[in-house]
Amino acid sequence: MKSLRNILSCAGTVLAAALLVSGLQTAQATTFTVVNNCSTTIYPAIYPADYNNGGWVAAPNTSVTFTVPTNYDGRVWARKNCNSSSPAQCDTGQCGGTGYQCAGTTGQPTTALAEFNLDATGTDWYDVSMVDAYDFPIGLVMGNGSGYEPTCTADVLAACPSPLQVTGTVSHVVSSCTNPCSVFKDSSCCNGLSPQACRDSVNTWQANAQQYTNDIHNNCGEDYTYPWDDWWGLHTAPFSSSWTITFCPNGVNPAPGSGNTPWPLAPTGIHGSTSNGQVTVTWGAISGATSYNIYRALQGGGSNGSPTDNTKIGTSTTNSYTDHAVTNGTVYYYIVTSINASGFSAPSAQLTITASGTGTSTTSSSSSSSSSSSSSSSSSSSSSSSSSSSSSSSSSSSSSSSTTTTTSSSGGSTVSPENATSLFLHATGTSNGSTVNLNSASSNWSLASAPVNKYVETSGVCLQADAKTSGSGTEVWACDGSGTEEWNVVKDAAPAGYFQLQTAGTGTTLCLDAAGTTSGSAVEAVTCNSSAAQQWKGSSL
Q1: d(CA 5, CA 436)
Q2: In Å, how far are 192, 425, 429, 450 from 432, measured between CA atoms?
Q3: Which residue, among 116, 102, 108, has the nearest Cα to 11 in the 3D structure?
Q4: Contact 129, 223 (CB under 8 A)
Q5: Which of 100, 169, 298, 374 is the most buried (most CB within 10 A)?
Q6: Separation CA 391–CA 407 (nearest Å)
Q7: Cα distance between residue 314 and residue 329, in whole Å
Q8: pLDDT, tens digit, 9 for 90 and up, residues 275-293
Q9: 62 DSSP β-pair partners
Q10: How much is the average pLDDT of 110-122?
Q11: Nearby residues of 490 by Cβ (< 8 Å), 6 or more positions away
């Protein structure tokens, strides 16, 4: 399994790769204005405790304004129905500290969060997360208006399915709607699924779990509702010197509609072809989709291919779209989303293609489907710890969006190690996670262009090391630009025609190694040692 893709539990709140941004930061302060537009008193809180020791009381229609440090990395939330104990006991978002001041402690995972990592090399990363629970609608407004501004138009709590309703310990009335994973401990936890498979599996969740996600997506814009929802919930924008965080942005909100229509699956099998002055994008038709939105960018990824970071160029009622507004020689990045009455699906894999003025070139992708949905019940709900303390887990979500690149293949061939020339590098299957071994049966492999180095590809999937630690196994996975899928082909004083395959990217450099000399022997990524087991020969290398 991809190690980074499986370290999130269901209730871990995601702030994504922004938490890992390093380097010189610009010294720009940021002003926060926190507004209570609700009809009742709320108890806002902030972590780290950069204002009023981390918590205060806010009467209806009041606001406070304060400054947070440069490169602020934290969260703001509101507590509901707090009493006068010390620390205050609350129905939602309860923290430690003294009185209403959280004093540097984080809230319990019973509340919605506004999360920020600001001025990370000039970029603001932000989200509204309802991964743990929904208790208040939240709206964000940027002072410079440079990015997407999530908000809620209805109070989702009014439509919370009864199994997810949580009665407050202070008020003894329903005070929050908790995440489905913590209640059902079923496929809504996405245990063992890749990000794309998790997103696609939403359509297979039981109705109450689907309703939680659909109600929030349809009524609160692009907010997180489960850990791998970062394609929808994570946003980036140029640095803004001021933010307004509003609880109940539309005042006393009406209840939303039922939201029971399952959202559609993400389009799969995205292909692209190009001829003079145009690019045609095609994909597999999705059951239940009424139309498709097509997005294009000049840079890959955005916030994991989120529609807010790409330009919508058209809508199609069929599974094909031709983009005529392209320039020959320019690289374009496309994603497609399905649409039905519930709204957008997760995005397709990202298609990367260069508009061509001569001939026609084609690229294709493979994408996880909902059939890989897991029904594991091993996940348990856990507190969504501070965004500033969860960088190692949150980074997996942000970097995991499926990406497809145009391949420039050198031609397929069998590949054999010097220590067992009668055996071949062999993929045991072509589905995500299929293992790779040494076998008398052969697979044809080719080199293909990757974002930085090379893919080693067979039948549309790519060779990868499970991790960047010596002794890691190997498998094949959809070619999506992950760091363990890129390889350097190195001569390294090997016999004529033989090469080392070295892992590329950050971390320890390892070499592809035939662990044995009999059919079925493992193929691993181990410390490079120039042995015969690490020298590989194939006409495509």
Answers
A1: 19
A2: 12, 17, 8, 18
A3: 108
A4: yes
A5: 100
A6: 32
A7: 22
A8: 888 999 999 888 889 999 9
A9: 36
A10: 92
A11: 499, 500, 501, 502
Q: Do residues 388 and 73 make contact, with C-beta atoms less than 8 angstroms apart?
A: yes
Task: Check: CB of residue 184 under 8 Å from CB of residue 209.
Answer: yes
**H helices, E strands: number in the chain:** 5, 34
Closest CA to 404 of 342, 443, 444, 450: 450
Question: 289 and 339 in contact (C-beta within 8 Å)?
Answer: yes
Q: Tell me the pairing of strands 278-282 and 113-120.
A: unpaired
The SS3 of residue 157 is: helix
23-60 per-position pLDDT tens digit: 334 445 899 999 999 999 999 999 999 999 999 999 99
Give phi and psi for 33, each to the nearest 5. Answer: -115, 120
Chain Cα centroid distance, residue 249 = 27
- In this predicted structure, the answer to whether residue 16 has a pLDDT above a threshold of 50 is no
Token pair 């302060």: residue: 29
What residues contact residue 48 under an 8 Å CB cut-off, 6+ apart? Answer: 54, 74, 104, 386, 388
First-last CA distance in the chain: 26
CA proximity to 194, closest of 373, 456, 15, 462: 373
Question: In terms of Cα–Cα distance, which of 152, 112, 165, 115 is closest to 135?
Answer: 112
Contact 439, 457 (CB under 8 A): no
Closest CA to 345 of 268, 274, 446, 456: 268
Rounded distance between C-alpha atoms, residue 5 and residue 398, angstroms: 10
Q: How far is the C-alpha of 465 from the C-alpha of 3, rounded, in Å? A: 10
